[in-house]
Amino acid sequence: MAKSQATFMKKQLEKNKLKKREDKQQRKQDRKESSPGGSLENMMAYVNEFGEILPEPPEKS
Q1: How many separate domains does the chain show?
Q2: Residue 46: strand pairing partners
Q3: Which of 8, 30, 35, 58 could form a disulfide with 48 if both were Cys (CB 3.0 to 4.6 A apart)?
Q4: Distance CA 53, CA 46 (A)
């Protein structure tokens, strides 16, 4: 009887580990999909000759 209980517990622990791993992977995927930025163009900032930070390249004059 003790052997079957130990085997059952091992199986349950393995199921729990697998479920946690899948949940973590799903949360990671959800964060990745809902992320607003990520592309290099969205993260770029430019500085003009006065030291002001601009979202787009300054015009050359």
Answers
A1: 1
A2: 54
A3: 58
A4: 6
Return the C-alpha torsion angle 17, 19, 25, 30, nearest 10.
-150
Tokens of 57: 């390249």
Could you tell me the residue range of the domain that residue 48 belongs to? 2-54
59 belongs to a structural domain: no
Considering Cα of 25, then 30, then 36, then 41, what sign does the dihedral take?
A: positive
Q: Give 39's contacts (C-beta < 8 A, 6+ positions apart).
A: none
| pLDDT tens series, the chain, 61 aa | 557 888 999 999 999 999 999 999 999 999 988 877 667 777 889 998 889 998 888 777 6
Say if CB 14 and CB 21 are below 8 A apart. no
CA gap 30, 59 in Å, rounded: 39
